[in-house]
Write a structure and sequence with these properties.
38% of the residues lie in helices and 16% in strands. The two termini are 22 Å apart. Helix 2 packs across helix 17 and helix 9 crosses helix 12.
Length: 403
């Protein structure tokens, strides 16, 4: 058997331990999951600093693809076709500020060239160092880039025939990438997607959420899911809740310190009808979104509004629940669709509250959701996104189909 016949894997590499609640990790794990669901031999690779990393066997054979552990499956709502390969990163890796003990360097210079590239057909990553390492080792690569960054892309990498495509989610980022040397013909804008499990109706779990969250005779529930940061509109949402004391608000997401901060802020403002749930596992989040009367997307104006990826918005759509959103540049293409029940100007809690009240009057809650919203989102599945990306990859460089 020659070496070429061993090259079958579609490798997704992320430079972070898993699981964690950050949006970019949700995005990338689901992107890998979508490719696996299409039947490609897909492996999600990430660093592991747990106790098992000191095992000599694991260090000698660090690349051991396996089924995703149940905690990862539940955390990100993954399917069982996706394989994972945590790379052991024992002490002193990342404990000292040196490139020789940096996990990024260890992965790109040691683990991948010697243990992973021999069976790799295609690499997909947000990590530019790994993209360069792949090209230099004769491996085709796809680069994901979702934020403004003032760096020049090396011509010898981006012009290589092995460099297949660069993917971003909004036009301003695409333009900045091109200005920094990325070839326009290799740079595409493509929306994120929704997890198919969010579309499965869960009426019993949704009813349980409503029973848990609706208190004191309340009958309406407004839910926000996503990062707990000011530019996301959380401060605005607290003000909105103050304007609507008979409606219960619930926020899912955020790190413990962020949850604590906003709990204290709501308490200081004497807003008692908003609750911060912290990070909700994705296998529970779908039913929470279905439990809501309205889903809130209160993003503020400003620089972030020009490039924010509406990742959570697609899971909102999949729930079939009416959405109230602020008019920001990255959402403008959805203005003329029925997928958003109401729009309002950003940074204005009074206007947002008025929009919520109007939607509560005109969109009664449906246990099965609004079918026109669900139909609209079907085009944005992670599987469709993966297929679109791979359509830009030379057929001879595509990974193996195993199912």
């Amino acid at each position: 058997m020659n070496n070429a016949s061993l090259k079958k894997d579609y490798i997704f590499f992320i430079q972070s331990e898993l699981p964690k609640p950050e949006a970019h990790l949700v995005q990338f794990t689901n992107a890998a999951n979508g490719a696996a669901n299409l039947g490609y031999s897909t492996v999600l690779v990430y660093p592991d600093k747990g106790l098992g990393t000191i095992n000599p066997v694991n260090l000698a054979r660090p690349f051991q693809p396996r089924e995703a552990p149940e905690n990862l499956v539940k955390y990100y709502n993954l399917h069982h076709k996706l394989k994972v390969a945590p790379l052991p990163m024992p002490w002193p890796i990342d404990y000292f500020d040196s490139k020789f003990t940096n996990s990024n360097t260890i992965a790109a210079k040691y683990y991948f060239p010697f243990h992973i590239f021999p069976t790799t057909k295609l690499v997909h990553s947000r990590n530019w160092n790994l993209i360069k390492a792949a090209i230099k080792n004769g491996i085709a690569a796809i680069y994901e880039h979702h934020h403004h960054e003032d760096k020049k892309f090396e011509p010898e990498i981006v012009k290589s025939p092995l460099f297949q495509i660069a993917v971003t989610v909004v036009d301003p980022i695409r333009e900045s990438m091109i200005n920094n040397g990325m070839p326009p013909e290799k740079t595409i804008r493509l929306h994120n997607g929704f997890n198919r499990l969010f579309m499965l109706r869960q009426p019993e779990k949704a009813a349980a959420w409503r029973e848990k969250l609706l208190k004191n005779g309340q009958s309406h529930l407004v839910v926000y899911a996503g990062a707990l940061q000011k530019f996301k509109g959380i401060d605005i949402l607290i003000e909105v809740a103050k304007e609507m004391p008979n409606v219960q608000f619930a926020c899912a997401g955020g790190k413990p310190k962020e949850v604590e901060h906003y709990q204290q802020l709501a308490k200081e403002k004497q807003v008692n009808n908003i609750i911060f749930l912290g990070y909700v596992l994705h296998d529970e989040l779908a039913s929470l979104l279905q439990a809501a009367d309205i889903l809130a997307h209160p993003h503020c104006s400003g620089q972030a509004a020009t490039f924010t990826s509406p990742l959570k918005l697609f899971d909102y759509f999949a729930s079939g629940t009416p959405i109230v959103a602020t008019e920001i540049p990255s959402l403008k293409e959805f203005n003329n669709t029925q997928a958003i029940a109401a729009w309002c100007e950003p940074d204005n809690p009074i206007k947002f509250a008025e929009s919520l009240k109007r939607v509560l009057e005109t969109y009664p809650r449906k246990i099965d959701g609004y079918l026109e919203i669900i139909e609209f989102v079907k085009q944005f599945s992670w599987e469709n996104r993966a297929a679109k990306i791979l359509s830009y990859v030379d057929e001879s460089l595509r990974p193996a189909l195993i199912a």
